[in-house]
Design brief:
The complex is a heterodimer. Chain A is elongated. Chain A is built from 6 helices and no strands. Chain A starts with 20 loop residues before the first helix and ends with a helix. In chain A, helix 1 packs antiparallel against helix 5 and helix 5 runs antiparallel to helix 6. Chain B is mainly alpha-helical. Chain B is built from 3 helices and no strands. The chains are: A mainly alpha, B mainly alpha. Chain A: This is Cytochrome (Ubi)quinol oxidase subunit III. Chain A: It is found in: Cell membrane. Chain A: It is a multi-pass membrane protein.
């Protein structure tokens, strides 16, 4: 099998994400990248945990003054659901159902935009409460960690939309199937990081 | 290119088998999604309840997060499938370095 081959529902392989050499390399390389991302986010978590609530004076808000359950909960539900919709997209990719895959990818992107919109609102809200990037070590560590995650979501959205746009008229083949698969891995990884952010930053911040 | 799939010699049967397999896998994905939502609800409820001490709540919600991430990795990211030896190595080496880093940073600030 080679990348340009025209395939049908019957001849579509069981593992299109690994059926060419290029695809195999993408798969391996992407997981290596995710290993590196784990280290990156762990270092940001370590910094945040060390600098949490380290503020210069008592007029500055602490974690327990800032975070609220409902906002974090809605953001979490949006991102978790978008993880499921991208699983559906890959399910349809494996069944050679291009249109269905695109619909689920579109839903994934919508949920991602919802999440990002909430984060923009949230950051804006905190800045008005006096919690800024430059106001304290706590502020710098918070915005670096959560902002890095938000930037990953924004990058993922751009990635998803460009994949959808570029392949809109192409249909599925062994050249683009691994690209969709790798995107879904990235999207799940963003969700993995968020699970730790909502636990370590928000929930632990509210506990004290 | 050899596909890692069984061959009964009859392509229609093979195709039918694969469709069923992947439909079955999709059911497991939905179940793990439901479990993840449940774990999230429990974590938020534990914090909202305020009745527990921080010494209980913090380890408890971190444990819930770890379980939920296992679902993400092994089901949503297919790490339970064959051919994921290298990804497992990469991810766990990354995790190891990361945990050492968190340990180091949090001990440094104690002194």
């Amino acid at each position: 099998m080679h990348a340009e081959e025209k395939l049908t529902y019957e001849t579509w392989p069981a593992e299109p994400e690994k059926s060419t050499l290029e695809a195999k390399n993408k798969f391996l390389g992407f997981w290596l990248f995710l290993g590196g991302e784990t280290v990156l986010f762990a270092s940001l978590f370590a910094t945040y945990l060390s600098l949490k609530d380290k503020v210069p004076n008592t007029s500055q808000p602490l974690a327990k003054d800032l975070f609220e359950l409902p906002l974090t909960f809605v953001a979490t539900m949006l991102l978790l659901t978008s993880s499921l919709t991208s699983v559906y997209a890959i399910y349809h990719m494996k069944n050679f159902a291009f249109k269905k895959m695109m619909v689920w990818l579109g839903l994934t992107a919508l949920l991602g935009f919802g999440f990002l919109g909430l984060e923009v609102y949230e950051f804006n809200h905190y800045v008005h409460l006096g919690h800024k990037f430059t106001s304290s070590a706590f502020g710098s560590a918070f915005y670096t960690l959560v902002g890095f995650h938000g930037a990953h979501v924004a990058f993922g959205l751009a990635w998803c939309l460009s994949l959808m746009f570029r392949n809109a008229k192409r249909g599925l083949n062994l050249y683009n199937a691994p690209k969709f698969y790798v995107f879904s891995l990235y999207w799940h990884f963003i969700d993995v990081v968020w699970v730790f952010i909502f636990t370590v930053v928000y929930l632990m911040g509210m506990v004290g | 290119m050899a596909n890692q799939q069984l061959n009964s010699g009859n392509p229609r049967v093979d195709l039918e088998y694969r469709r069923r397999k992947s439909a079955e896998e999709m059911r497991y994905q939905v179940i793990s999604f439901a479990l993840m939502i449940f774990l999230t609800l429990v974590a938020f409820a534990a914090v909202a309840a305020k009745g527990f001490t921080a010494w209980f709540t913090i380890p408890f919600i971190v444990l819930l997060a770890a379980v939920q991430v296992v679902f993400q990795l092994f089901y949503f990211m297919h790490m339970s499938h064959k051919g994921h030896e290298a990804p497992t190595l990469f991810l766990f080496s990354g995790l190891f370095v990361g945990l050492v880093m968190i340990w180091a940073f949090s001990t440094i600030i104690w002194w």
